[in-house]
Design brief:
The protein has 514 residues and is of the alpha/beta class. It is built from 16 helices and 17 strands. The N terminus is likely disordered.
């Protein structure tokens, strides 16, 4: 009992220190209170934990469990093995938990609400960024006074260095949730603001990035999205026009604000950056960065997620007070929306490489590394393929003796099908149906489905078939995995509300470091 009382006092003391910059909106939220109670119970059970000097949060956007499994197999097959026995870098982490991803108003979530939960400790609505669930989406006035402080803002307040790395636009939902507060994730530049938002003084996301005021400002920011920072009519290096209608060039404003910093836009400039750089702002593309499989085709050259992760750690690690770094593999999600498993899995493999790089550059004794997803996708792996069957290929099964067959399995329409598919999306064929007595009593089947026999379903441009026709495949609502190692990692085992991740990061920060 004495031990429990001591542990509890430690929790209260540490929490009061860390809550110094937490808003009333957060402290009064039941989501926040419940997470603090859960943290207290876990610490009473586990005991006091060693604190972390550094925190690296990896987000595989849309990286559900089926995505991890299929990517693990593809990675192994790319290396010449069957694939199933392969392990991605984060598969080897000592602690694994689950995250419940729903938003406060949606059973199946979006990236804005989920990432806001991860970085603020409070669940909120779909489509809003780091404002409370009492805000109405796309309603500026309703979000006034309802900002929720993020883990990145807290880290800056503690004197830590901070970084954001993403293969999406830096103003896109996941990276934006770390520094911006808005009732509409789509307000990436001023031209997207509604008349109501302008009237009530809400600022666009790119402007909020430039005006970030915590600590000495974000130290490293790398990703895409030049157009959101440039005035309309200004042509960027790859020939695209800016989107801003207020005449502001936020790239130039950043340079003025941080005269000792480096602003870069291509791979050559990236390669010239040294760890002695004080501030780094990089916009490598007009919109999102290229898929890793297509990166070599970028007109001006752009680094990989692994290269950006390495560079960020090298710059941030100079701070004796430590750092917080968020790294997003954004294009897993975007490939899934397109129904393109090849790129979704390839992006997941690249994330694994980035995690491995971070793991090699850091020390488990002082760095907490978390790898998770904001949500999953309606991505399936099915059909009883034999062991080692190409994961992107068509299903070849086993015979009645358990031995591999040599021919493709055929569906009721007499055509082969792939192991991987989607519940909905653009891969649907709009077909008529008829009764086929040979397929079963009154069974309705689609006729005219494309014959995949001679189609290379393993190519980068193939889009898997889908059951329900919609223009873009959707997210799904099941739990996603949390992989972790380092100080505080064991607190994330078990089944957790997604916002609990923030509370573990918050508690794990060592405020007494040199």
């Amino acid at each position: 009992m004495v031990y429990k009382l001591i542990t509890t006092s430690i929790i209260i003391l540490n929490t009061s220190l860390l809550c110094a910059n937490i808003t009333t909106q957060q402290r009064d939220s039941n989501w926040y209170k419940d997470a603090q109670k859960k943290l207290k119970k876990k610490l009473e059970y586990i005991g006091e934990i060693k604190k972390a000097k550094n925190i690296i949060l990896f987000i595989g956007d849309g990286m559900g469990i089926s995505t991890v499994t299929a990517a693990r197999i593809l990675d192994g097959q790319n290396k010449g093995s069957f694939g199933e026995e392969n392990m991605l870098s984060f598969d080897k982490f000592p602690y694994i938990g689950l995250s419940k991803t729903y938003n406060t108003n949606s059973q199946t979530p979006d990236s804005a609400g989920t990432m806001s939960a991860i970085v603020t400790g409070v669940k909120t609505k779909k489509g809003v960024l780091s404002v409370s669930e009492n805000s109405l989406r796309s309603d500026c006035k309703s979000s006034k006074g309802k900002n929720m402080t993020t883990i990145l803002e807290l880290a800056e307040s503690y004197g830590m260095s901070t970084g954001i790395v993403s293969t999406a636009r830096l103003t896109h939902a996941t990276p934006a949730a770390t520094y911006a507060h808005t009732s509409e994730r789509g307000w990436e530049n001023n031209s997207k603001l509604s008349p109501e938002a302008i009237e009530n003084g809400c600022k666009d996301i790119a402007a909020q990035f430039i005006n970030f005021s915590y600590g000495d400002g974000i130290d490293v920011a790398m990703g895409g999205g030049r157009r959101e920072f440039m005035p309309k009519g200004a042509i960027e290096v790859e020939g695209k026009s800016g989107k801003r209608t207020d005449g502001r060039d936020l790239r130039e404003e950043w340079k003025t604000k941080y005269p000792d910093g480096k602003y870069i836009e291509n791979l050559s400039e990236f390669n010239s950056i040294t760890k002695d750089t004080k501030k780094l702002f990089a916009l490598f593309n007009d919109s999102h960065m290229h898929y890793e499989s297509d990166r070599k085709n970028d007109l001006d050259g752009e680094p990989s997620l692994t290269q950006m992760t390495q560079k960020a750690i090298e710059i941030l690690s100079k701070n004796k007070k430590g750092y917080f770094l968020m790294v997003e593999a954004a294009r897993i999600d975007q490939a899934h929306h397109a129904g393109n498993a090849y790129n979704a899995l390839s992006e997941t493999i690249e994330l694994s490489k980035a995690v491995d790089m971070a793991d090699k550059l850091t020390n488990d004794k002082n760095t907490l590394i978390i790898v998770t997803a904001d949500h999953s996708h309606v991505f399936t792996m099915a059909g009883y393929p034999k062991r080692g069957n190409p994961i992107l290929g068509k299903v070849i099964s086993t015979d009645k003796h358990g031995l591999p067959k040599t021919q493709y399995e055929l569906a009721a329409d007499g055509l082969p099908y792939t192991t991987l598919g989607y519940t909905n999306g653009r891969g649907f064929m709009n077909l008529k149906s008829q009764t086929n007595a040979n397929a079963g009593d009154n069974m309705e089947i689609n006729i005219g489905r494309k014959n995949l026999t001679k189609v290379d379903t393993t190519s980068s441009g193939y889009h898997q078939e889908a059951l329900i026709p919609i223009k873009s495949e959707t997210h799904s609502g099941e739990d996603v995995t949390i992989y972790s190692k380092g100080p505080g990692a064991n607190l994330l085992s078990g089944v957790n509300e997604q916002n609990f991740i923030f509370h573990v990061m918050q508690y794990s920060i060592d405020l007494d470091k040199d």
